[in-house]
């Protein structure tokens, strides 16, 4: 009885401390809202004085400004949104639906609370003598500070159960430091006052407390034991599922060295082939000779442009741009890591895409081919026409996904990955030529780049070696279980 009573006492004490923390944060936030709305002179004086001092320290120091902008971007809606999306995909594939719902709802709170409160308070942004950055909308509270404490805090609560005690402490310290740096960057860039950032942090603590309490009520309704979210994570029993991958084996070290050396040799060979083809094309009639229709086809396409085809080609061109390729690649990597529970497929995706990028940029710099001499619908671009980076990246991304998915999925819809690997590059290639951005031989160069580099990655990285049963890498869950998870 004494043990039960002491356990209940400790639980009550933890609950009271969390209520006190959330209540104190709510009180501070309410007071700040009131003072900001009243334009209380002492608060305005501190806020404006600090804004002016930081502006004097930062203005004219470009490296420092670039560093601050990099840090502040870590709290942007784009970065935070992708973190929530990737983590949610991993949780859904691992069938941890309550945790995925918690993460999505908690992150959505930042998107809802920020604009509503900004409009309700209506505070203008700081005015400094030497502006180094500009922010849109009102000032209170800071959206970056609010989003960072909510999203990074929620990620810590969700995944901390998979960490050791020391790992949780390190992760908590990293999150705290990152949130503090993002808040400071907003002050140093002159786009927020100190009270904007402190108010955002207080509101973030309140929202995390509310959503965490709601999650605990859900666990209680299901009959699960009470937890200590900061010490154990939201779902301690999910620890095994939240660990990203299984252990490596000794053979991995030797194979990694062979893969790095072999990939380096193959990179040089593919680069040499691209230069051997591209440089003569760039010199022949200043890059616009009629080799394989390089002049005829772009001119014919330019003469038959219509508004509808312009729009369709724009979508095709965007499907192969850096942002879309990165987005699809991140989601594919999250699904691969969650479903296969091996680092090798993720490394395969990363090495394939970064190898393509380096080959494209290096070959384009050496070849220096002019774009087709027709009107360019995408404007002037700084890179060479040969090879097409859009087409090469699209081929490699969707082909790499097909290489991973088809052997592991036994349902009929696995062939949809093959269809996508064939149709997406065709759409992007047709769009890029239609819009006057590439010659047909530029697309041919992309095919050579993609074929050579994909073959290299498949041979050396062996992304599906866990299905071979030769002991080269630990087995995954098997095609049937992966199919069940992904499907």
Automatic annotation (TrEMBL):
Coiled coil: none annotated. Residues 97-212, 348-458 form the Phosphatidic acid phosphatase type 2/haloperoxidase domain. Keywords: Membrane, Transmembrane, Transmembrane helix. This is Phosphatase PAP2 family protein. InterPro entries: PAP2/HPO, PAP2/HPO_sf. Gene3D superfamilies: Phosphatidic acid phosphatase type 2/haloperoxidase. It comes from Planosporangium thailandense. The chain crosses the membrane at residues 20-40, 74-92, 99-117, 145-163, 170-191, 197-215, 264-282, 322-340, 347-368, 388-406, 413-431, 443-461. Pfam families: PAP2 (PF01569). It comes from the Bacteria.
